[in-house]
Amino acid sequence: MSATDKRAELIAAIAELDEESALALVHQRVTAGDDPLLIMGDCQEGMRQIGERYERNQYYLSGLIMGGEIFYQVTELLQPVVESQVSGHASGRILLGTVQGDIHDLGKNIVTMLLRCHEFTVYDLGVDVSPAEFAAREREIQPDIVGLSGLLTSSYETMHETVALLRADGNQAPIIIGGGQLSEHVCEYVGADFWTTDAVTGVELCQRLMAKH
Ligand code: B12
Question: Is the minimum distance from the CB of 180 to ligand 1 under 6 angstroms?
Answer without folding.
Answer: yes
